[in-house]
From TrEMBL:
Listed name of the protein: Transport permease protein
Keywords: Cell membrane, Membrane, Transmembrane, Transmembrane helix, Transport
Domain ABC transmembrane type-2: 21-252
UniProt-annotated location(s): Cell membrane; Membrane
InterPro entries: ABC2_TM, ABC2_TM_bact-type, ABC_2_transport, Nod_factor_ABC_transporter
Pfam families (alphabetical): ABC2_membrane (PF01061)
Record keyword ATP-binding present: no
Coiled coil feature spans: none
Family of this protein: Belongs to the ABC-2 integral membrane protein family.
CC terms in the record's Gene Ontology section: ATP-binding cassette (ABC) transporter complex
GO MF entry, a single one: ABC-type transporter activity
Protein topology in the membrane: Multi-pass membrane protein
Gene name tied to this protein: drrB
Transmembrane segments: 21-38, 58-80, 101-131, 137-161, 168-187, 224-246
Length: 256
């Protein structure tokens, strides 16, 4: 199965590289968020709830996660194009496993997000980012990013297989954008005044991804409890979405 998965991943990567405008706008938007939020809101980092951390370190996870949500939509749309061209139907006639067929685009989407995350980090370093805990903070943030990206790519692939429509796949992904803002996006939870927003942030999985990244980016020592919660949420999302995508791949086979 792994050889098949690699072949499907490689094909998806080549398709993405041949069409760079499928991911460049998403990267530009993520960097735009980083520049605007850092420039416009950095003064609030002087509040005691930020514990002396720079606002650039606090807001960086928002830029990375928004890139994951936008990039996942591209993964699903690429699969819809394969369905519409008949390529996906031909794949289903091969001995390749359904898991490999859906894992290939998902892993390609994850690798795309990895490159995107590294580029966002490069911009952040140019803006003066320093990570108090050093290299472990960088590596754990990247790990959380690719875990979340794999889960979101699985969601996009699952929706694409379910709807078989590029617009519907894109719309299904956009529904998750509110999750970015129903969270501790701009300030710590202690500074959120609306009680309903605090409740939403508590049940929002994106909050735990943000807090996991901030646990290794903002303080001189790692907050292992917050980091562990973030890794657990990213891992659970990945597993659930892989099952979701594989289930819909079997459904697509039955419709043929």
């Amino acid at each position: 199965m792994w050889t098949e998965t690699w072949l499907f991943t490689k094909r998806s990567l080549v398709t993405t590289i041949r069409n760079p405008f499928s991911f460049i706008p998403n990267l530009i938007i993520s960097v735009f968020f980083l520049l605007v939020y850092t420039s416009g809101l950095s003064s609030i980092a002087s509040l005691p709830q930020f514990d002396g951390s720079a606002y650039l370190n606090f807001i960086l996870p928002v830029s990375i996660v928004s890139g994951a949500v936008g990039g996942a939509g591209g993964t699903g749309q690429a699969l819809v194009r394969d369905i519409e061209s008949g390529y996906f139907a031909r794949l289903l006639l091969t001995p390749a496993t359904r898991t490999a067929i859906v894992l290939g685009p998902m892993i390609a989407g994850m690798l795309q997000l990895l490159v995107q995350t590294l580029l966002i980090f490069a911009v952040a370093f140019m803006l003066g980012l320093t990570i108090p805990v050093g290299l472990p903070g960088f590596l754990f943030t990247v790990l959380l990013a690719i875990g979340f990206g794999l889960g979101f790519a699985g969601y996009s692939v699952g929706v694409a297989l379910k709807t078989r429509n590029a617009q519907a796949a894109q719309a299904g992904t956009l529904l998750f954008f509110p999750l970015i803002f129903l969270s501790t996006t701009f300030v710590p939870k202690e500074l959120i005044e609306a009680e309903w927003l605090k409740v939403a942030a508590t049940f929002n999985p994106t909050t735990y991804i943000f807090e996991g990244m901030r646990a290794v980016l903002t303080q001189p020592t790692i907050d292992w409890a917050a980091l562990s919660a973030g890794l657990a949420v990213a891992g659970a999302m990945s597993v659930i979405m892989i099952v979701f995508a594989a289930t819909n791949a079997r459904g697509a086979l039955k419709q043929k």
